[in-house]
Amino acid sequence: MRTKYFAIFYFCAITCFAQENTQLDSLQVALRNAPQDSTRIDALHDLWRYFLSYQPDKSIKYAEEIVEFSRQIDFQNGLGRGYLYLGVVASQQSDFEKSREYLQRAYDIFKSENDQKGLAIANSNFALDYFYQSKYDSAIVYNRGAESYFMQIGDSLKLGSIYILNSAIYLERGFFDLSLKNGILSAQYFLKQGDSVGYAKAMYNNACVYESLDNKKAALDSYYEGIPIFKKNNILYTLALAHQGLGILYTKDPVQADSARINLEKAIDIGKEMQDTVLIATALNEYGRLQKVLKKYDASKEIYEESIALSRAVSSGFSEQIALLDMGEVYLETDELQAAEEVTLEALALNRRLGVDVGINRAYENLYKIYKAQNNFGKALFYAEAHLAKKDSIYGIDKANKINELQTIYETEKKEAEIALQQEEIKTLNEKAKVDTLTKGLYAGGMASAFALSALLVFGFRQRMKKNRIEREKQEEIYKKEIEHKQKELTTQTLHLVQKNTFIQELKENLENIKRSPDTFKTEFRRIVMLLKKENASDKDWEVFKTYFAEVHNDFDQKLKTLYSEISEKEIRLAAFLRMNLTTKEIAATLNVLPESVLKSKYRLKKKLGLDKDMDLTSFLNTL
Prior knowledge:
Elements: H1 6-14, H2 24-33, H3 40-52, H4 56-72, H5 76-92, H6 96-112, H7 116-132, H8 136-152, H9 156-173, H10 176-193, H11 196-212, H12 216-232, H13 236-251, H14 257-274, H15 277-293, H16 297-313, H17 317-333, H18 337-354, H19 357-373, H20 377-395, H21 405-422, H22 429-432, H23 437-515, H24 522-537, H25 540-552, H26 556-563, H27 569-579, H28 584-591, H29 595-608, H30 617-621
């Protein structure tokens, strides 16, 4: 599964100490004017953050200054923050071994200072490191540690971010129920706190889950719910990710290639506006994939080359390995097997160095296909077996099949307990072995009760899952019937509009004939024409139609306005009729205009939407 979450969680974790980002000059002035005390750390932090995305070497410089200055004034919290920031940069550069070393130093300092906020953030970044490396059990353990600390300090907003990362981890594991549960929980936390941006990020996350569940409608709704919030609050990073997510979703259907292109280009443009090289590289990877789907292989290769160059410029191994693997697949499709082999082996070596198991597994699978195409069956067999073994390792599949979600939860909790023991947060089990015989008997009885209770909890959990499934199916059936009813009402309204306006047109033609009759009809003629014009100018029928149309077609007009803010009400009306698959003649009759006027309006609408001349306007509108 292609990870799309890193930017959201990365910023959720590291900006707990952050202040508002300002221009470089003002940040440097603030540092020069900062006193030689602990408040100077904040000024250094702001410069560290400013350079983080596109000049990591300078970011490292300011993090090291934080460490050195904190030592000079013997400020332990600042020292912990400095190590934390060094760990974040190392993680961004995919040097996870160095990242964990710095994060551990930060964790130890925060532990000695009893700084729960620092401990929470350190745990969050540990979780992210393991998430990037596809080590999901460890990621869950550390994320739960962060959850515990945030609960102790009562930070509900950060809890919302914790549940987003939980959702992403479970999604990568293929545990969709748990993923969606955590995503919804995150949205609820943000709503309760009145954090619209956090809520929008949760909706972005849920869109990714719905996409994996092949629920395109829910995924689109979630993306489009978040985009206006990101725009309003100028949250450019996640806005870019949302457009990138829409691009990925639309790429799956070649008919929707224009929608994919528009959204991916928006993501790339935002990345350039932010001067964020990693964001540009990841968006380019998806843009290259779109060209591959369209079989524009030369364009795809050029895009991947650009992405690889950008990734290497900022030492982003994570985005580089994706581009290399994608390019290898392009070479494979074009039968350039030698080039496919070379670039895929390069990707494999990089993923091994980074410790990214999902990337290693994907390289194994691609090498199997390459060597099979070369008739090198010995190597093909080797990599096929390696692929299956790695797949089992990643997704926790036992000899029979993939373990179920309850078993995963049990193993995760067991691992959490082991880490807690190592960190001396609970007493050792050896002390409990010194109890007398009576205590042992009571303990045994307690354990038996605990096992019985566990069995009841598991049974109750399964029963709740079954009940929820039944309720969900009932609700889906009700919703389906409501949609069918609204569809009938919409069809009725559409026919009514067509019939009404056709009648008006015919009546006006008859009246034109009457106009040429004796003068006795003139007064009556003027009165009738005035009444007809008044009736025809009324927007009442259009408003009724629009209400039904929005209910059936998921706020079609709002989606158009979100993507194309300059679109007019008349153009939305025309788009709605095209979405209903009305003919040019029917639209002309409905709007009481000539068919030629409809054709001109269609041409202008297509141009405003930025569609290629080969793209059918009606087909495009049906994808929204």
